[in-house]
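Q: Can I see a sequence and its folded structure?
A: Here is a first one.
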Amino acid sequence: MIRTMAIVPVRGNSVGKTRLSPFFDPGQRAALVEAMAWHVVSTIQRTGVADRILIVSEGNPFSFASQRGMSNLDAIVQPASEPGLNAALAYGRTWALGNGADRLLVLSADLPLLEPADVYELTDRRAPVVIAPDRFATGTNGLVLGGTRRMAGTVTAEFSFWFGADSFRHHRAEAMRLGVSADTASGPGTSFDLDTPDDWNRLPMDVRERLLDPLPIGPDAIEERQRWAESA
């Protein structure tokens, strides 16, 4: 039976999401990053598609990795000598392959609308490479590598990550380089990543409330940011 490992790279937990500075100070943004990452991790867990879930983070691993009671959740720290998102994923893949993974599910940590159906949309396909583009069809928010056991070894181990500008096109080209087919899986939860004030404004109110709930901010600040979002 094919063994699937999910990798969730968490970027800049202490100083990340700077474009959300009009709403949140650095400490609050760090809490928001963790809230979104936990949503992605728990959504993967609900589907049961991954034998293990791995968080690759900069700095100290997130507290929920040891406190949420998930026996199949691991967290590792990306070496400072190997910076960047693509290096984090390569580091996570090495760990995953060393722990028996045949297939990888990669999901961005900033997908506040992710639902189990979006995960199934990715993992139910059998193409050697499955790509979930962002809503502009330029970036990549999810990947599945190694759709079948016959193809898993080569594709999972040799696929080069190209997250960054125009990554959707680069990932399709990478599949072509390896001589395998690439499928596209577009779901509402994988297409929407949260980076900017406009992204925040587009979120449904109940999602904003869920993300705001763990943040270290008072009710007046929450109401102010919600009023700004509603009027923008």
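Q: Show me another, different protein.
A: A second, unrelated one:
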Amino acid sequence: MRAIFHWNLGSRTLELGRRTLIMGVVNVTPDSFSDGGQYLDLQNHDPEKAVARAERLLAEGAVIIDVGGESTRPGAAVVAAPGKSAPTDTVPRTRTPVSEDEEQARVLPVIREIKRRKPDAIISVDTYKASVARAAVEAGAEIVNDISGFRWDPKMLKTLAELKVGAVLMHTRGKPEEWRSLPPIGDPVLLVKRELREWAEAATLAGIKRDHLVLDPGFGFGKNFAENYPLLAHFQELQQLGYPLLAGTSRKSFIGRTLGRNGKDAPVEERRYGTLATETALVLKGAHILRTHDVLAAAEAARVSDAIVASGG
């Protein structure tokens, strides 16, 4: 059985645990691995395509819309902390970090327009930059989803403590430009549990209230093919941390590798059914929120999985 939590978003509270909530992905980026360029007008920053995508996901059953303006696919360059430079020997020359101004120009019009059309919509901003988080909250976002675990921008912890919104703390090993060269993890479950506990404690010590936090083990983020499946198989152990749990496996490469044929990974558009298998397992093992591209499919799978959980499964 899943524990019941009340996630404090500042202006309202979300009950987590009686049913699985679906977080729908809206990427306003030119290069995200799954849907890069589909919902972004780079020249005019016209939000229409992204807002239409959000409206469709809400109609399909999404409770939260997660808007992101920077790709963190493997190999992507991210902005270094002040006073530090990004490693130049591992970042491909064709990829440069997205500036704070550019990221805001991508996400803020989308957030504002979603809130104008759907005032009750719950919007999350997918960012590791404190300034983008603050601007997004001012535009109407109620959740900050930080893939870095609040560690890449030294201002993020203080900013979230001040904003008093919902926050997703995700586990990541290294940065995207380093992922292909990271050494293997001995025990991925033990490592993720230990570091999530440490980072959550650091967040609460910095002034972020415990009931504002949700934890995410970060499937695929600095974990290789062989390390994601143990994390999935033992996902229920993360319930011991005492926080609500979010999981995102949607269309990820470890699923493509498993479904591959003739030595080639299955392409992104052929990973839907494999994704549903992982999402069903995650609900049965205690996930409170699923972050996904395929909202309708995930919502229906979650309804059936929730019925199993409610029956003692």
